Amino acid sequence: MDVLAKSIGLSFVDWLIIAIYFAFVIGIGFYLKRYTKTADDFFLAGRKSTSWVAGLAFLSANLGALELLGMTGNTYKYGMYVAHFYWIGAIPAMIFLGVYMMPFYYSSRIKSVPGYLKLRFDEKTRVLNGFSFAIMTLLVSGINLYAMALVLHTFLGWNWDASMWASALTVALYVTLSGLVSAIFTEIIQFFLIWFGLFLVSVLGIVDIGSIHEIFRRIPEAYSKLWSNSGDPAQNGMAITWAGIVLGLGFVLSFGYWTTDFLVVQRALSARNLRSARNTPILASFFKMAVPFIVILAGLIALVLAKDPKAAFALLQDGGKVNYDSALPLLIARYYPPGLIGLGVTALLAGFMAGQAGNISAFNTVWTYDIYQSVFNKKASPLHLLWMGRMATVAGILVSVVTAYWAKSFPSIMDYMQAIFSWVNAPLFATMLLGMFVRWITPNGAFWGLIAGMGSSFTMFLAVKFSWIQPHLITLSKVTSDMAVNFWRAWWAWLICFVVTIIVSFFTKRKPDFELVGLVKGLTPQTLGQPVPLHRKPEFWAVLSLIIFILLNIYFW
Amino acid sequence: MSDGEKKMKPIWYFVGLILLAMGGVVFLSGLYTLIFRVQHKTALAELHPDLWWGAIMVIVGIIFFLKNKTGR
Predict the structure, then answer these.
(1) What is the pTM of this model?
(2) Residue A229 pLDDT > 80, yes or no?
(3) Nearest-CA distance A158 → chain B (Å)
(4) Do B12 and A53 contact (CB within 8 A), yes or no?
(5) Which H helix or E strand runs over A138?
(6) CATH code of the domain occupying A2-555
(7) Could you tell me what percent of chain A has a pLDDT over 70?
């Protein structure tokens, strides 16, 4: 580690670039404070964002530095298979959200996803989801904070505590000052910094090796395929079949995350009208499809260089194991001179901090509206809620810091990140799907379905973790991997929630139709709005996105 | 936000500013390397990626900055 820390040590210009970034984000927080006067300004950015602003923020809220490092490393390990996370694991769900689900979210004027659950079902379902989302968000936020400090310490030799506190306090400052609007501003800045800071790695890697064709020629054939070796789990690095990819990742985990996770949905709710809100995830889908040009290409470049003795390139070893996360930092160290190193490091820092701000701004909204106002103070005034949002931001950051220290004592908690999503989001997607499209689903059906889905997912996790059952009982395959178990567990949790919700709904009282107008398909009058030309319709861009998605999958079949 | 208050600058204005500032630093650093023939040990250093990548950032930054400085 020390060798690497020295090899990507920072010069004066690198520190200057990092200082510019910190000065900018804090300055933006102070600048925007004067425009943040109401609770709507703080929690929903005043509902004034265009589709471009909301769309890039929607994507960036998910584009964290941990993901960039992890996915580049995973590509080194598994090859093109990792592109499934960006294509089938995202695009259909984003399009579905924009085309079918957003009208229900946006038109009901809710402030959060749990807020929709209250309108469609009842208060207890809202509070259940509010609490589970708040706990999940703070856990993820703390683990992210820990991971950021670990990365900066490992690759740059920075002090663990100092880097964690500096970034946590900066995020606390600008989110407390101006809420979601500053979170969105920093997310968009992060988007540009990631592209300008990291895409050059791929460009220089291609020049170094010769061409993209040469990169694909020099990797094992199985590493350049998406689907053709997915029939037999023993034939691909992830040890998973196409059914696991489609059902677990492509359907449940992807739809569960992109259509119900308030962290991303909140960005679409900040849009200025329904058409912009619907365009938000659809526009984001084009950029999501492009992210592999950074992470997948960089991972494949690292793989080619590592196989070439003349390149003198090898990933770090950590306790006798290969540290796959070191692929991207090592490529930065290989190609970037001073100045560009600062830009690359700033891109990673921006990814971490914007992710942190995203989590905290989603947490403060759910805490304020779905827990504090719903459970503790039903008569709170808008000004009091604004104050509570600011307090929740500070408290959320402090809890994240405590969680980060906890994660430092138990590093294996990092392994639970993916699992946490399948505990909360996978069953919630079944609840939302039934709630929005089936009018006879009852409040008690939704509540007990969610309890059953979340409980079963958690129980399956413990059962595999402590070897109460064999993993192949969940994956239905003799060859299996942690990732395959994750995908299949999400599928079963979704199915259990789906079935229990339907069964309980048969025996419990449904809400009258007039209370569901605007919340359920079939009871919602279609709002046509102003006629717009074809190229401004969400459906037009959705079809275009879908065509590109299909072509990419066929090309890399 | 009241009507009498100064209109908020769009995000693209700040994107332009930060690309201009960071691109400027990267470009100047590359220019220094070229003029004073500083030898970096990085691969492909002879292509001076800092010089042209910094210049691209400056150009994109100027476009964003100028198009949005009126706060439309």
Answers:
(1) 0.89
(2) no
(3) 22
(4) no
(5) helix A123-156
(6) 1.20.1730.10
(7) 95
